[in-house]
Amino acid sequence: MDIHPIMADSSTKISDSKNESETNIKVEKNKKPAPKLTPMMERYLEVKQQHPNSLLLFRMGDFYELFYEDAEIAAKILGLTLTSRDKGSSNPIGMAGFPYHALDNYLQKLIRAGHRAAICEQVEDPKQAKGLVKREVTRVVTPGTLTEDSLLDPRTSNFLVSVSIHKKSVGLAWLELSTGRFQLTTCPISDLADELARLSPAELLIPQGLEDDDVFAESALTLNETVLTERPPWSYVADTCLDRLKKHFRTQSLEGFDVEDSSHGVVAAGVLLEYVQETQRTSLDHMTQLENYRSENTVHIDEATRRSLELTQTLRGGHRHGSLLQVIDQTVTPMGA
Predict the structure, then answer these.
(1) pLDDT confidence of 286, banded at 50, 70, 90?
(2) What pLDDT, on the 0 to 100 scale, is given for residue 10?
(3) What is the mean pLDDT of residues 286-291?
(4) Where are the domains of the chain?
(5) Which fold has domain 39-141?
(6) Which H or E run includes 9?
(7) What is the fold, at CATH topology level, of the domain defined by 159-297?
(8) How far from 218 is each of 46, 130, 210, 214, CA to CA, in Å?
């Protein structure tokens, strides 16, 4: 039995559609019958079906284990030894793992490679368990939802950005989950490229099918290292997005946040909040404010000028080393610092 999750490289699309009929699990016919799966492996496959687009880190005692194609992907990225269960069978199960205390180190490598990781923990004491230990996914880690200092670059913001496209305008919302700063705006669609270049998102939430849109494709040309994550159409229902935000902030309306003139931005913010709630599965009480970013109050540098001046990355290769920001980071004089 092979599991085939969608691999997410840089600038790779990840589909989050809730009505996926395919679970990416295929059963191959063999001359010899495959061995009967243990209850533990049956639970693994059940959880994997719920997270087909993530590498599933399955807690087993003091280790996180990966199986099937997930194990092959992780072994290559992390330099792990690829072994197998049921070696004597005609269809052995590939597996790889690492100690639980090394999670942050290995997570960093998986995320930097453009993957998502679903962390499935043992949610009861094995000594108290009657039969199979209960396991549940407690968090889905994605490039835009990092919170640990060990996984973040202290020199840059790690933005999760959501976009809601309309006829002549676009709603944008962005969040730095580690700090809880949550902002939105509505701008002309012609400004989308400049806004995306300014934010430089680690992960961008887009409606299904938008990646094939010519206008968006042109605007996203600079997003070399951004992971694109598709969201289903029903996530963009305006009333649903508004209600989700009001429920989170425990308010009857959003008047106190001064966002009435940014209805498209509210939609983008609602989509972003839904995604964070789905992946984090924990309290988001540190997200207490929603700011309306008004571009008319700010002096802007357009995307072309930003690139030409090599403010944050070089023209050749898009590297940080050699950019103005990298040079300023090396200053040691009082004036430079």
Answers:
(1) very high
(2) 42
(3) 95
(4) 39-141, 159-297, 301-336
(5) MutS, DNA mismatch repair protein, domain I (3.40.1170)
(6) none
(7) Nucleotidyltransferase; domain 5 (3.30.420)
(8) 40, 56, 12, 6
